[in-house]
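Margin note: ligand = zinc ion.
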Amino acid sequence: MKLSPQRVNKVKTKKIPQRMCLGCQESRPKRELIRIVRSPEGEFSVDATGKKPGRGAYICPKMECFAAARKSKGLERSFKSPIDKSVYELLEQQLNELPKAEG
Ligand SMILES: [Zn+2]
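Resulting structure:
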């Protein structure tokens, strides 16, 4: 049995995709963050599946990060458009409704 040295040396490095939270500006594994998406129709929503079409931004599933993003206008900057108060209220509501993955 021959082992090709090239094959042995090829170490698989698993790259975990990192995204920056709009609130605390910290990079975290994508799966630990919540995706906020703007649909092609211009509607904002919390994307719990990560599969909704449209442009996305990421945030920790924490109200304090959401509040920080709101205060710093991180969403506006990320989507390059003004965001209505009602959108924030809707997103806040949707964040609150997310199942908590604690424990
Ligand atoms: Zn955060």
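The mean pLDDT is 88.
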